[in-house]
Design brief:
heterodimer, A: alpha/beta, 20 helices, 39% helix, B: Rossmann fold, eight-stranded mixed sheet, 31% helix
Chain lengths: 595, 351
């Protein structure tokens, strides 16, 4: 039989809370250490224990990180989804299933490997048999696919750092799984794992942890947060690293953490910190941003540096709390009532998560306004290969703050909201400094910060704010461009779609269509985005939502002659983007245009 | 500014910082003439001056409403933040984590504190954040022209409309139950008592709540209203007279009445002296304080004075485990870990 090496998808169906996550991490860690390009997607329910969970492992020598368009190997443990999972398989798929689950194998067109996982697990320790069952299937997979025992044991040691008894138990269980398959089955499927040379050393890390590290290197001084999936691990990442990174020898810290009573309070605290001259941030998701709208408007209007990270989940309302989407773009960009416009920075890789983590504070203090980091559940909560983080290449930018009286006295005229430099960014003094004391307010104000309802004061203030944010365009992260010489079709996309775009591109190229790519990394959009659209005959805006939110923003801001070049491809079902679905929709759009 | 020319020279009284009282005043009030809130503003000015507080080391915080407009009318040399409705406690919390050495004086109303922002008030109390929190309580929404607030008593009657039928929230009783470390009630017309309470609250380490009955002259000043000036003046029971003695002032200068009194030492070494007028009340006894509040309520009266005090609890700054200097003064190179530290993190993640 011809073998298929490093190009297949494994789907592991278990129930939430059974401990399968650590087994799955051992599996992908060992593949990773063998140099096999691999990605793992945790499709978990909004529940602590009992509801179905799927873990999707994609092996791809081409480096594809999306979940893949079909399952090649199904690991079946969960009776609740048994039939559904079986029925969805293509003929010829491999099924590794728990014989003790009291469920039938109802397909005769698949390659079936029944394993008495529960009874094998009970042999090791009946009390924790449920937990051990997960390691048994990893042992079976290792034998079926040919995963190195040494890499497997190293992954176990990494997972259970220093806990000798746990390491021993897991290695025994792996062996039981391996041995059972060897003694009772003959491999008759094509799927194998082949070792690859590791060209550059990488590690696995979640986007949320990368943002957390970035924030700490950005000098965050206050984290005010309210727990919400999928952002909690971002806040907890900061909390976990504070002892190592931001605590002195006496155990005192330079980063305060307040778990707020709700998202409204978290936003208020972040603004309070910015008002007092510090670097404050919160981490939340869409429902939290909804609650923060009032403060976001205050931050914009009173011009308070502040940082908000939104790890996007599926909306509207409570939505699908444990699924991924890019659906908060408009809410962030135009957040709060009245005319507003906010800076949004959008990482697409874990390296950028770190970089934008520290940059967010520089932007906040430079532009004296709320800054939004837009991540999503896929990027934030799944593990991605990382080359390592680069140290900030510039000093912290504390913005236009007048700290010395000499400097203050040198101003011909001082006003908190006076545009001295013509860039729309005024100078500020800090509470406690004794210089230019003003009462900050969310009400209309003149250039001195004094309450004003005068038409000219309001009009000029709103025009200056517009000028200020517009001026940020080309100072924010520029788009990443990969252009074809033909310049016929361009694709604009953002964020975690980065992990699927290459596969989409390859599918399109296989049909003879070459596309250029432009990944937007910030709003308001960089002038390069407009240039990209001008250069191409047609540009598709590709995003993970229903309405084409980024497309809407582009249509609003581009000159009329460019708007007609835009097409929207927007799709979302909660699952991380599968290349096939988006490529198909792009093809349909192009067909509709007679391409 | 007065237009009257050539006034005879007069002696300007200075405080311990050699500052005249003018250094503590603010802009002209735009509240209704005779508003109780303006009296409270003048008491704040006096208290800060007499306490010898550096005006620029004060942060004036407020929410939204008539009361929350008043920070513009006092301490013109202090930065302030007129935030959003009911959310002044959270903004103050954030500012406080960055600069714990400022004196935070929050002014709020009963709409702010008993309705839209009651959650934030509760959690600020729970964290024992260092601040003076003054509620200018008139039982009515003034800026929106006279709707009942959550502190309006049953039976209160507006000039027009039906009497209030919903039971009120007593913010002092709530605060005592939450373990608030300084709880007092006063009346905007009782300048001496209120001044003493505010001065004491400024020295308190922890959350100091002062509920000040401050009648609304426009919407709540008919005799049926239990927060009308006339009603309160006739039905007020003063639980304690308080006199604050700043530690940098010779004690002789204060007129200490003879008779029943107790001294309580505050965190900055200053003492507060409580004089009992009507009853032997131990302000460290929460049950006695609640009894006094409930008895007064049952008798349709207001009890004023320092109701509850506890200086044994750590404040939020201590709980946060922050470095000694305010975070705003921590240099950039301390805030950003070194390149070597990042190298170590990268290496640890690789292994």
């Amino acid at each position: 039989m011809e073998t298929i090496a490093n190009d297949f998808t494994i789907n592991i169906a278990t129930a939430n809370g059974t401990g399968s996550q650590s087994a799955n991490l051992i599996l992908i860690q060992s593949l990773f250490e063998m140099g096999v390009p691999v990605s793992g997607k945790n499709m978990f329910p909004s529940n602590i224990s009992g509801l179905p969970t799927w873990y999707i492992v994609r092996l791809s020598d081409l480096g594809y990180q999306a979940p893949g368009n079909r399952t090649h190997i199904q690991v079946l443990l969960n009776p609740a989804t048994w039939h559904e999972d079986l029925e969805s398989l293509e003929p010829g798929s491999v099924v590794i299933w728990n014989e003790n689950a009291k469920m039938e194998m109802t397909r005769d067109d698949v390659i079936s490997y029944p394993i008495p996982m529960s009874s094998l697990a009970r042999k090791i320790n009946p009390k924790i048999a449920k937990l051990v069952t997960n390691i048994i299937y990893v042992g079976v997979l290792a034998e079926v696919l040919g995963i190195d025992q040494t890499e497997l044991e190293a992954a176990v040691a990494k997972q259970f750092k220093g806990k000798a008894s746990a390491i021993e138990l897991n290695i025994t269980a792996l062996g039981l799984g391996r041995d059972y398959f060897k003694e009772n089955h003959t491999k008759n499927d094509p799927y194998v794992v082949e070792k690859r040379t590791i060209e550059k050393p990488q590690f696995f890390i979640e986007g949320n942890e990368a943002v957390a590290l970035g924030c700490l290197f950005g000098g965050v001084q206050l984290l005010a947060w309210y727990p919400i999936t999928p952002s909690s691990s971002l806040a907890e990442g900061i909390i976990n690293y504070i002892p190592q990174l931001r605590t002195d020898d006496d155990g005192n810290t330079t980063c305060a953490v307040v778990q707020a009573e709700d998202e409204l309070a978290a936003a208020g605290m972040v603004l309070g910190a910015g008002w007092a001259g510090g670097r404050g941030m919160t981490a939340t998701s869409g429902p939290g941003i909804s609650l923060m709208q009032e403060f976001i408007g205050l931050g914009y209007f009173a011009e308070i540096p502040s940082v908000f990270w939104n790890v996007n989940r599926v909306g509207p309302s409570t939505g699908l709390p444990t699924r991924t989407q890019q659906s908060d773009i408009t809410m962030l960009y135009e957040g709060s009532h009245g005319d507003t416009q906010h800076i949004v920075i959008i990482p697409g890789t874990v390296e950028e998560c770190f970089e934008f983590g520290w940059r967010a504070f520089d932007y906040a203090e430079r532009f004296q306004t709320p800054i939004f980091g837009l991540s999503d559940l896929d990027l934030g909560m799944n593990r991605w290969a990382c080359d390592g983080f680069e140290y900030p290449d510039q000093e912290m930018d504390r913005g236009k703050v007048v700290r010395d009286r000499d400097v203050f006295e040198a101003f011909e005229e001082f006003g908190r909201y006076l545009d001295v430099d013509g860039d729309g960014i005024p100078y500020r003094t800090l509470p406690g400094s004794g210089m230019d004391p003003i009462l900050y307010r969310g009400t209309g104000h003149d250039t001195k910060g004094t309450y004003s309802e005068k038409p000219d004061d309001y009009y000029e203030l709103m025009q200056r704010l517009k000028r200020k944010i517009d001026g940020a365009r080309d100072l924010l992260p520029a788009p990443i461009l990969r252009e074809e010489t033909e310049c016929e079709i361009g694709i604009i996309y953002l964020g975690s779609m980065e992990n699927t775009i290459q596969e989409i591109d390859d599918i399109l190229e296989a049909t003879g269509i070459k596309v250029s790519q432009c990944r937007i990394r910030a709003l308001p959009m960089h002038s390069e985005v407009e240039n990209f659209i001008s250069r191409h005959e047609m540009t598709i805006v590709l995003e993970i939502n229903r309405d084409g939110q980024l497309y809407g923003i582009l249509r609003k801001e581009l000159p009329n002659n460019l708007i007609t070049k835009l097409r929207s491809v927007a799709y979302s079902d909660g699952i991380p983007p599968r290349a096939g679905i988006y490529a198909q929709r792009i093809l349909e759009t192009l067909e509709g245009e007679g391409q | 500014m007065s237009d009257t020319p050539k006034r005879p020279a007069r002696t300007v009284k200075l405080n311990v910082l050699n500052e005249p009282k003018d250094s503590y005043t603010g802009g002209k009030s735009s509240l209704c003439p005779g508003c109780g809130h303006d009296q409270i503003s003048s008491v704040i000015i006096n208290a800060a001056w007499e306490n010898g507080i550096e005006p620029h080391r004060v942060a004036k915080m407020s929410g939204i409403g008539c009361s929350s407009k008043t920070p513009a009318y006092y301490l013109g040399q202090s930065h302030g933040f007129n935030t959003v409705h009911g959310r002044m406690p959270s903004v103050t919390t954030g500012a406080y984590t960055i600069n714990k050495d400022l004196l935070y004086i929050g002014v709020s109303g009963d709409g702010d504190s008993a309705s839209i922002g009651i959650g934030q008030l509760i959690h600020a109390i729970r964290r024992n954040m260092d601040m003076v929190y003054i509620i200018e309580n008139n039982g009515v929404y003034g800026l929106t022209k006279g709707q009942y607030s959550a502190t309006a008593d049953i039976g209160s009657k507006k000039k027009k409309g039906v009497p209030n039928k919903t039971q009120p929230i007593d913010l002092c009783a709530l605060a005592i139950n939450l373990g608030c470390t300084f709880v007092a009630r006063s009346f905007s017309g009782s300048k001496k008592q209120l001044g003493s309470l505010i001065k004491a609250a400024m020295s308190h380490k922890g959350f100091a709540l002062i509920d000040v009955i401050s009648p609304c002259v426009t919407f709540n000043n008919n005799d049926e209203s239990m927060r009308s000036y006339g009603y309160v003046k006739e039905n007020e029971i003063t639980l304690h007279m308080t006199d604050y003695i700043p530690h940098f002032n010779p004690i002789e200068e204060i007129d200490v009445p003879e008779g029943h009194y107790r001294d309580i030492t505050l965190h900055d070494g200053s003492t507060i002296r409580l004089e009992t007028i009507s009853a032997e009340h131990n302000p460290e006894d929460a049950v006695a304080a609640l009894t006094a509040l409930h008895t007064a309520e049952a008798n349709k009266k207001h009890v004023t004075g320092l109701l509850y005090f506890d200086n044994s609890k750590p404040s939020l700054a201590e709980d946060l485990g922050l470095v000694d200097i305010p975070l705003v003064d921590v240099p950039n190179n301390v805030l950003r870990p070194s390149k070597e530290t990042l190298d170590k993190i990268n290496a640890a993640l690789h292994n």
